[in-house]
Amino acid sequence: xxxxGEIDYSARxxxxxxxxxxxxxxxxxxxxxxxxDHHIQKLSGARQLQVxxxxxxxxxxxxxFSQRILTTPMWNSAIPDGVAVCDADELPFxxxxxxxxxxxxxxxxxxxxxxxxxxxxxxxxxxxxxxxIGFNPFSLWGLRKLVSRHRGGPWGGRFMMKRxxxxxxxxxxxxVESAGSSFFQVPLQRAVLSDGxxxxxxxxxxxxxPVGAYYCILAKKRxxxxxxxxxxxxxxxxxxxxxxxxxxxxxSYPGKGRNRSGAALNHNQLEEY
Length: 273
Fold this sequence. Notes:
Elements lengths: L8 H11 L3 H18 L3 E8 L12 E9 L10 E3 L12 E7 L8 H11 E12 L4 H8 L14 H10 L2 E9 L6 H4 L6 H6 L9 E8 L25 E2 L22 E2 L1
């Protein structure tokens, strides 16, 4: 049971996963797969991790990586090998263990989007790449989310701004390699069944206007060289300063104004050297 006032992200994730089986959902997923393949076609490495909503929605299946791992927040008996059941903000992988991390609408449907991004950064090795996909609020899809009372499918997501995600990535020491929006289809199921591109596709399909349904950000994790520690001072390397008039005296123990034998210090016990 979800307390009153809190969003049930688990239910929204399940609704979004089911929505991908609709004609519009299948068209969106195909476009996202093509977009991700375009960005990572020259990448290779040992491990590729996709943090998403379901293991049934894999991306980058043609990438040249030795091991591909997917995560899903919900367990079921049909989960295949290579799939980890976990939340996006608590990944069960060691740090610096992945060469590529793909976040498929992770921030849109996570209760803690910033922590999910930090976890992805933690498991990604230095100079590794991250691909982040999220819904664009400055689009017809964002407009429909504002006017729609329905919170199923994609309309239950956050639709976070691309600039905000880029700022978060830079705070985590990433450099944004490329960023752009894609998929200019009208967010209506019946529009998919019509023949030929609509007016939105014809006007915005040139990709000069950043009003696509989703954005795709490619970022690299930067690694800084360690600052060398200063050598510890050694007594034999200390240069003695010549001079006269320096005065030294031992501490007075056990009583104030007394030496170790208990005798009081006087002016004659101060030695000049």
